[in-house]
């Protein structure tokens, strides 16, 4: 079997992958023993990990509803992870059936599963791509088939930038993507932090994975939003960003910042 030119036997299952760890913590089944072991280690090191990933996903769903409610009809989701229903296109198209969604991830397993689940109606696509090469993502023909960069776009960078090291220049990555967006576009961002608890043990788990976990402070995360205007309530722990249900227990410990920002004209 091939997927975007990658054979199934080339998929690395010897080390945990962040997308599959996340899937496991959400209760999914698209993961391997090595990912489950890493997920259990992560939960031991950071007891709020499972409620944290659920709170992060709930933030993403609220943020998608907000940007669609603001009139955006196309979404570029980079670092989408394994499909967990309801996914971005399901949430968005429930609010506005004409929304188009392009998914991008660097894990061939994500790409293969996504292609199996998408309707191929022309309103959704999934691309094998790497956030560290943002220009290649913007220029990818399968992204361009779905996304018109002359019209406002909602860019989703949900729980993905913390897998880039400082040496990989995440601020420059975001700036490249920002500059490709027209005025009226949105950035939906969430990022792991150690501001609320010592999470060096969680970082140690990812040191054995295919990507390291790079925790950043509030000020460091805010720099990714340069060139955008944050909407209320600004950058917040994800359970407290416009909650539609009471935040879960231990929410104050959850080490994810989340925010939605608009590119002004």
Find the count of extended strands (DSSP E, 2+ residues): 10
Please trace the helix and strand order, writing H or E for each element. EEHHHEHEHEHHEHEHHEEE
From the alpha carbons, calculate the radius of gyration and give it in angstroms.
Answer: 17 Å
Distance between the termini: 46 Å
What's the shape? globular
DSSP helical segment count: 10
Strand content: 15-25%
In terms of structural class, how would the helical and strand content be classed? alpha/beta
Unreliable sequence segments? 1-6
Mean pLDDT across residues:
91
Sheet with the most strands, sense and barrel status:
8 strands, mixed
Which percent range fits the helix content? 25-40%
């Amino acid at each position: 079997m091939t997927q975007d030119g990658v054979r199934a036997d080339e998929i690395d299952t010897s080390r945990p992958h962040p997308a599959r760890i996340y899937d496991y913590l959400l209760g999914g089944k698209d993961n391997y023993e090595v990912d489950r072991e890493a997920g259990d280690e992560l939960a031991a090191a950071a007891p709020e990990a499972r409620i944290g990933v659920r709170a992060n996903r709930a933030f993403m769903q609220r943020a998608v509803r907000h940007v669609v409610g603001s009139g955006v009809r196309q979404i570029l989701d980079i670092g989408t992870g394994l499909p967990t229903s309801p996914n971005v296109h399901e949430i968005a198209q429930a609010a506005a059936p004409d929304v188009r969604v392009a998914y991008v991830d660097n894990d061939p397993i994500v790409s293969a599963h996504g292609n199996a689940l998408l309707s191929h109606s022309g309103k959704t696509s999934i691309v094998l791509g790497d956030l560290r090469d943002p220009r290649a993502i913007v220029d990818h023909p399968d992204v361009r088939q779905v996304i018109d960069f002359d019209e406002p776009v909602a860019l989703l960078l949900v729980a993905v930038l913390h897998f880039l090291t400082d040496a990989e220049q995440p601020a420059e990555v975001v700036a490249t993507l920002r500059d490709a967006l027209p005025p009226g576009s949105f950035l939906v961002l969430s990022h792991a932090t150690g501001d609320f608890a010592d999470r060096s043990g969680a970082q140690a788990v990812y040191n054995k994975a295919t990507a390291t976990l790079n925790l950043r402070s509030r000020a460091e995360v805010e720099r990714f939003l340069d060139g955008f205007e944050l909407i209320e309530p600004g950058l917040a722990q994800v359970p407290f960003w416009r909650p539609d249900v009471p935040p879960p227990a231990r929410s104050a410990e959850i080490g994810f910042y989340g925010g939605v920002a608009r590119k002004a004209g």
